Amino acid sequence: MPALWDNHAMSGNTFGTLFAVTNFGESHGPAIGCVIDGCPPGMPLSESDIQADLDRRRPGTSRHVTQRNEPDAVEILSGVYEGKTTGTPIALLIRNTDQRSKDYSNIAESFRPGHADYTYWHKYGIRDPRGGGRSSARLTAPTVAAGAVAKKWLAQRYGTQFRACMTQLGELAIPFESWEHVRSNPFFAPVADVAQYEDYMDALRKAGDSCGARIRVQATGVPVGLGEPLYDKLDADIAYAMMGLNAVKGVEIGAGFASVSQRGTTHGDSMTPGGFETNNAGGVLGGISTGQDLEVSIAIKPTSSIISPRASIDIHGNSAEVITKGRHDPCVGIRAAPIAEALLALVVMDHALRHRAQCADVTSAVPPIQASFL
């Protein structure tokens, strides 16, 4: 069956077809985690391979994000023997250690505007208000953990690498200087000086408000031929995955919406024996990877949980004023870069296994070409 049907058949908690990741837990439960089914056997894997990415995503790393102090220490419970994957399900566990459930007692019977409270209540007839429960961005930690496993296999098999950076914070555009700067500041910004973004976030927190962000995600060293020709196109599955990330309201592949104003003479990526001249397609043509870099951009909305009072209703339909206490990211986009990387890795990993299963013996007289403009 198509991957899309498989995902939906699992009540929305499992992602992927051959590399399937089932996510479990709640923000204030005892633990969160995931089960990875379909990881090839024989790959060296330890907690340290996963922990580095979790440390990039974890809360409490700067004054600009939630001060919830979680170590996010991952435990491998199964699927690894004598340091190597066995081909059986890999269970990853991350214990919650710094919950403050009392912060949410005042919203147990009301709905936060812009949050999933209202829809969860109507869908299930019950909801966990503590930290957003299942709808919390806390549940992105297992995604990052699973993505780290996919990244390692893809790096060893194809040399594929993933990276992401912030290109806009609220109304402030962030120019691109170098990927080298991304790991040296709390914004994952590709610039050396982030002073203006520090000031912007300090003022935003003081005002009790929040803002959105734009994140650029890139995969390099992607082999040619990943993806399917119709419903499971590589770019369609990328968009599907990115829209599954909390607060994402838009996804662009390659030139994205800028392609509306481009001419065909400009948008089509010309090819030469030396490679592609441009990458407006974002590394995907006809739903199949070209071997160029995958280029993705996502738009993240402002955080819904803020301390400024807002009008809402309660579970009885009466008017209510909502003030959300607790520890929240005034911009969830600040910690989104490693999550977006993980989601892109999961998509590429799943399609790499699917391609290997169906087309591993396919050869072509025409060698793959790369991007000559890089």
Plain-language structure description:
With 374 residues, this protein is α+β, with helices and mostly antiparallel strands. The chain is built from 8 helices and 18 strands. The radius of gyration is 21 Å and the shape is globular. The relative contact order is 0.17.
CATH homology group: Chorismate synthase AroC
Helix content: 25-40%
Report the uncertain regions.
1-5
User: Biggest sheet: strands, sense, closure?
Assistant: 5 strands, antiparallel
Structural class by SSE content? alpha+beta
| Global shape | globular
- The total number of structural domains is 1
CATH topology: Chorismate synthase, AroC fold
Strand content: 15-25%
Brief account:
The chain starts with a helix and ends in a 15-residue tail after the last helix. The chain contains eight helices and 18 strands. The chain is of the alpha+beta class.
Relevant terms:
374 residues, alpha+beta, five-stranded antiparallel beta sheet, Chorismate synthase, AroC fold, disordered N terminus, single chain, 8 helices
Write the layout of secondary structure elements.
Layout: H1 3-9, E1 14-15, E2 20-25, E3 31-37, H2 47-57, E4 74-76, E5 80-81, E6 84-85, E7 90-95, H3 117-124, H4 140-158, E8 161-169, E9 172-173, H5 195-206, E10 213-220, H6 234-243, E11 248-253, H7 264-267, E12 271-272, E13 275-276, E14 284-285, E15 288-289, E16 294-300, E17 310-313, E18 319-322, H8 337-359
Antiparallel strand pairs: 1-2, 2-3, 3-7, 4-7, 5-6, 8-9, 8-10, 10-16, 11-16, 12-13, 14-15, 17-18
